[in-house]
Amino acid sequence: MSITITDAELILMRLLWRESPLSAREITQRLQSEKQWHRKTVNTLLSRLRKKSALLVHKNQDGPNYFSPLVDEGTYMRAATSYFVDRLFGGDIAPLVASFAEARSLDSEQVAELQGLLRELSDDD
């Protein structure tokens, strides 16, 4: 997957991954308390996402168009994470986890969850 989604576009995509299809007006209303974006801003983001082939437009002759994601959230997150790890850590996960652990303290529940994931990964081999 080679779609690059900006931080602002990701906010809109997260909304559409939770609730879709939505019209531009509905998107603006739902994001109003969080972002105070005007309709023009939302329309600009929708246009950019359409050009990136991230959105499907449901054309409506008698009313507003509705938008839904063409990109699956999990697929995008895996691709974005892989790109991030490759770019910053040369594809190596251990320095990523070490960097994260240094920046934020992990509670015992988070450590246990990571240990469980590592056990699962080693069991798959």
What Rg do the Cα atoms give? 19 Å
Mean pLDDT: 89
Assign the structural class, choosing from mainly alpha, mainly beta, alpha/beta, alpha+beta, or little secondary structure. mainly alpha
- Total number of helices: 6
Order of helices and strands: HEHHEEHHH
State the strand order across the main sheet. Answer: 1-3-2
Helix content: 55-70%
Number of structurally distinct domains: 2
Low-confidence stretches: none
For this structure, what is the CATH class of the largest domain?
Answer: Mainly Alpha
CATH topology of the largest domain: Arc Repressor Mutant, subunit A
Tell me what portion of residues adopts beta-strand conformation: 5-15%
Describe the sheet with the most strands.
3 strands, antiparallel
Specify the CATH homologous superfamily of the largest domain: Winged helix-like DNA-binding domain superfamily/Winged helix DNA-binding domain
Q: What are the salient characteristics of this protein?
A:
three-stranded antiparallel sheet, single chain, Penicillinase repressor fold, Arc Repressor Mutant, subunit A, mainly alpha
Topology:
Blueprint: H1 7-18, E1 22-23, H2 24-35, H3 39-51, E2 55-58, E3 66-69, H4 73-89, H5 93-103, H6 108-124
Antiparallel strand pairs: 1-3, 2-3
Helix pairs in contact: 2-3
What would you say this structure looks like, in words?
The chain is mainly α. The chain has two domains: 63 residues, Winged helix-like DNA-binding domain superfamily/Winged helix DNA-binding domain (Arc Repressor Mutant, subunit A); 52 residues, Penicillinase repressor fold (Orthogonal Bundle). Helix content is 66%, strand content 8%. It contains six helices and three strands; from the N terminus they run αβααββααα. It has a three-stranded antiparallel β-sheet with strand order 1-3-2. A hairpin with a 7-residue loop joins β2 and β3. α2 packs across α3. 10% of the residues are buried. The mean pLDDT is 89.
